[in-house]
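Entry type: protein chain
Record version: 2
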Amino acid sequence: MNGRYEIRITRQSQKDIEKLTPRLRQRLQTILTEVIAENPYEGKKLLGDLTGNYSYRLTYQDRIVYSTDEEERIIYIKRARTHYGE
């Protein structure tokens, strides 16, 4: 079964997005629609406390952290900002 996934933004990631510059918001939008919604497994599989989630680079420092619901074809964006000493 191919096709796009629906993207859903969590409250925490919405707060992260509001702190991004307009340029980074645009980059995030592009990544979500052109990369992650098309193939959520492009991201890096996370381990440890974040097992079951994926990470995709937004900038050198910032990452998009998300999980997928394969049955419903939904991607939940959990974080959209740095995870380095925030």
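Comment: Helices lie at 11-19, 22-36.
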